[in-house]
Inverse folding.
């Protein structure tokens, strides 16, 4: 969130300084753990319709940013699939009608044969589903690294290993009591927020990275299982992300055996060949969420915080960054989004 806000200010000709408590340049934060799916339609299965409204043009916004960065960044807009066992057809039908109603669309359930035309390696004959062709995905590590490089190459300061201890209006205070004054201070510190710490909660997510060069799945695939929901998000060079759990707990400990088994078992239900994939990384992090799971822009004079991105950091950060910049530079709030401003 912070990198995108900085990028937007920079593009408008402003000078930006980022304070990042991690040593860097490679970070280990929530944004680096994510799967980077840009799935406004799929999010309607569990989230408020407001998430769809905010994120429906996310792939277009990212497309512009990536074009501007002029770097090779894995960003695909081949759509995504939501699958369900034929046995649970009524559930996928109700998801379909909910999405059609909310988005004024006319999606229909795809047969197993149609699913295999889109993704021939999905081998279960029992899976039916939905296809959302406007959805996309982005490689989180590549975009974060390239945004940092872009900021550094364009005269911004990125102060790694520099923890902000306190913020008062437009002043920040560092560990050695150094005080620095800016025109605006934008806090995007996720779960470690200095502002509203007690209102944010942590939602643990575990994710497994595997390599399986022989499997050719080209777009994110979700299995809408009532006990073991899972998604498989393809990356470059035969790498797949299998995720993710959603556990109400501020627990950063390594992936549990139970979560690992559930995620990996569900991946095999989508494509049996995953049983021969090799596990290359297991990661855990916690999503920052407000009680209503919606993002918030909190304003105290020149001290603004943008936080609570929950499971929608990549989906929503381009639009939230624009709202922050509009507020700072034009004193403008979007009238239709009053639930975001506090
Ligand atoms: C397993 C998993 C899968 C996910 N998948 C998706 C997905 O597919 N699509 C999607 O849209 N979202 C996804 N998300 C959600 C997304 O990752 C988060 O919403 C997003 O990363 C939140 O970004 P942020 O910038 O608010 O927080 P962070 O990424 O945590 O960044 C905050 C930064 O602030 C720094 N910081 C904190 N305090 C201070 C301080 N006092 N001084 C200096 N620096 C400080 C931290 O070190 C950190 O680098 C997923 C999350 C998880 C855990």
């Amino acid at each position: 969130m912070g990198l995108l806000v900085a990028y937007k200010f920079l593009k408008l000709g402003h000078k930006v300084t980022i304070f990042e408590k991690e040593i860097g340049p490679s970070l280990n934060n929530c944004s680096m753990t994510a799967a980077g799916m840009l799935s406004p339609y799929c999010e309607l299965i569990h989230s408020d319709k407001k998430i769809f409204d905010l994120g429906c043009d996310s792939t277009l916004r990212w497309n512009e940013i990536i074009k501007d960065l002029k770097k090779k960044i894995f960003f695909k807009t081949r759509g995504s699939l939501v699958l369900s066992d034929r046995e649970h057809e009524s559930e996928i039908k109700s998801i379909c009608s909910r999405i059609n109603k909310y988005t004024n669309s006319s999606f229909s359930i795809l047969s197993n044969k149609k699913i295999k035309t889109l993704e021939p390696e999905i081998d279960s004959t029992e899976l039916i589903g939905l296809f959302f062709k406007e959805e996309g995905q982005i490689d989180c590590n590549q975009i974060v690294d390239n945004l940092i490089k872009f900021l550094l190459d364009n005269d911004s300061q990125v102060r790694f290993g520099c923890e902000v201890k306190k913020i008062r209006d437009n002043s920040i205070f560092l560990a050695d009591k150094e005080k620095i004054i800016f025109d605006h201070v934008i806090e995007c510190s996720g779960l470690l927020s200095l502002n509203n710490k007690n209102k944010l909660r942590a939602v643990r997510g575990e994710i497994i990275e595997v390599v399986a060069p022989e499997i050719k799945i080209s777009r994110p695939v979700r299995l809408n299982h009532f006990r073991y929901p899972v998604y498989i998000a393809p990356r470059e060079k035969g790498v797949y992300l299998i995720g993710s759990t959603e556990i109400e707990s501020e627990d950063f400990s390594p992936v549990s055996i139970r979560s690992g088994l559930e995620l990996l078992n569900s991946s095999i239900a989508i494509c049996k060949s995953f049983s021969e994939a090799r596990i290359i990384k297991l990661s855990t992090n916690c999503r920052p969420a407000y009680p209503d799971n919606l993002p918030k822009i909190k304003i105290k004079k020149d001290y603004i915080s943008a936080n609570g991105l929950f499971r929608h950091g990549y989906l929503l950060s381009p639009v939230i960054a624009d709202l922050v910049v509009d507020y700072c530079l034009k004193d403008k709030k979007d009238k239709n989004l009053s639930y975001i401003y506090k």
About this structure: The chain has a mean pLDDT of 95.
